[in-house]
Fold each of these.
Amino acid sequence: MNATVLSLQDVTVAYGRHPAVHHLSGAFASGSLTGIVGPNGAGKSTLLKAVMGQLPLSTGRIRREGLRPADIGYLPQAAEIDRSFPISVGDMVALGAWRHVGLFGGLTRQGTEAARAAVAAVGLEGFERRPIAELSTGQFQRVLFARLVLQDPKLVLLDEPFASIDARTTADLLAIIHRWHGEGRTVAAVVHDIAQVREYFPQTLLIAREPVAWGPTADVLSTENLRQARAMAEAWDDDAALCRAPEPDRAVAA
Ligand SMILES: Nc1ncnc2c1ncn2[C@@H]1O[C@H](COP(=O)(O)OP(=O)(O)OP(=O)(O)O)[C@@H](O)[C@H]1O
């Protein structure tokens, strides 16, 4: 079995008194490609933010096995990114190289070449000087992927990378995700389209605030598991107490 890159032990994350992720245990194996799925409000974005250290844990522990912050590439949901910032495509992509330059340092020639290659990898040659505010949603998502390509992370976390994105761009971005997978990186993406997960993601984590199942996609996305996730979502009580103990068979392993 592959080594673990990221492991979660009884992780609970709450907003005030309202738990959004509840007693989640399991692990992302090194080189795995995982779709994170679940109903709206299931805690998928919250989980990624907790992994990034942006939210505190109410219980449990996250182990980022030997990963430095620069080894983790994170793409938040599009709605959380301010596109009014006056910056060009080329400069936005170059931000992906932040770990290779000093505070006031510019990119080396090698870095500039790598940035150009990253822009080309996402099909945006010729757009380098364009302000990001003038891009379509799909073009902007390509820019964010180019930034990740340049960052060269070992673990890539993507929050709804295909939301509001056209089919052509989705196909191109899926190809980049598969290239990352082929290079041995660990990738996890929140995806809403179950058919897409079945086709492109070998592993799946299904959550409905509490874990439902985590493992090979064909096993996880069973009719029964999907039914259970829907039923759990319908039963949500946002005024519930912070935490109730999980039933022992709720904790799932990768
Ligand atoms: N900043 C916040 N403050 C308070 N509650 C929040 C906050 N962010 C999310 N929540 C709540 O936490 C729960 C989980 O939200 P989260 O965004 O993690 O779910 P999700 O699975 O990513 O949903 P979606 O698929 O709709 O994006 C929801 O009930 C949501 O309303």
Note: The mean pLDDT is 89.
Amino acid sequence: MTAQLIDGNALSKQLRADVATRAAALTARGVRPGLAVVLVGDSPASQVYVRNKVKACEDAGMHSVLEKYDAALTEAELLARVDALNQDPAIHGILVQLPLPRHIDAHKVIEAIAPEKDVDGFHVASAGALMVGQDGFKPCTPYGCMKMLEFIGYDPKGKHAVVIGRSNIVGKPMAMLLLQANATVTVCHSATPDLAHFTRQADIVVAAVGKRDVLTRDMVKPGAVVIDVGMNRDDAGKLCGDVDFDGVKEVAGWITPVPGGVGPMTITMLLVNTIESAERAERAASAR
Ligand SMILES: NC(=O)C1=CN([C@@H]2O[C@H](COP(=O)(O)OP(=O)(O)OC[C@H]3O[C@@H](n4cnc5c(N)ncnc54)[C@H](OP(=O)(O)O)[C@@H]3O)[C@@H](O)[C@H]2O)C=CC1
Ligand SMILES: Nc1nc(=O)c2c([nH]1)NC[C@@H]1CN(c3ccc(C(=O)N[C@@H](CCC(=O)O)C(=O)O)cc3)C=[N+]21
């Protein structure tokens, strides 16, 4: 059996067209949706991602501001910038690219972002809202993974989902969203003794570790949906995920590629959250 591909580029194209329509409508009503992306330091990988985000914004007809700072920027200076963006009515979403240099406390910076502009969904208020089922921004990567399941018409209800990884930005919120969608969820991590024992039972596997070949074909139940969040480089320097794609595609029912899978969906959901934020800001202004 050969798995069907879940095309993150194709789904992104659909969803971004809707974002562009909403952006045009908002702009026509005098509210140009705006995203600020803040990058500290000059890691080449971050530069690429950040440029992609800004370009995606512009393509959707949204306003975007890229603020780049030297790695020596102090925490106080960064907090002051975040505060200025919180006050700026032209900005509806603020993204501070992670990781930050070691001398800056990332938690402190994320908590400084106004929750109504937290389009990354990383603020404790957003995480709390997700946990208790209230309105708030969902983290873009897991949100994008849920959209991919929806796209293929796969309802997680009653299914066993295994999430590999428990970070605050991917694994934990992914587990929460799957739980909300009525899956039975298992979360595995570096202290899980026999990963394959769990993944072999899974109808849905989400790999979010950051290591190549974490999931191989012997670990996958035939027909399972396999979502690969990982972003790694192989020995030749080529981009690859956490999943041994060539092996796993022979047993899985569905699989996401890297590149062209979850990565573009993350950027798409960032645009979706930003447009949603701008629409909320417009409603709040008209209610005043
Ligand atoms: N496509 C996209 O849009 C995005 C991709 N990424 C990529 O996704 C990957 C994960 O990112 P992120 O969540 O931030 O990473 P983290 O490093 O924060 O988390 C990795 C998780 O994997 C777990 N882990 C490590 N080794 C193993 C193992 N051998 N078996 C099982 N679990 C293991 C860790 O366990 P423990 O908690 O015990 O340490 C941890 O929970 C990275 O490759 C990253 O680049 C991230 C964000 C967006
Ligand atoms: N505050 C913050 N928010 C983030 O959302 C965030 C972050 N920090 N730090 C880094 C991670 C990583 N991340 C990716 C987004 C898109 C692709 C992406 O578009 N990938 C393309 C390939 C890109 C390439 O060719 O290198 C693809 O998979 O097809 C990858 C990774 C967002 N992150």
Note: The mean pLDDT is 96.
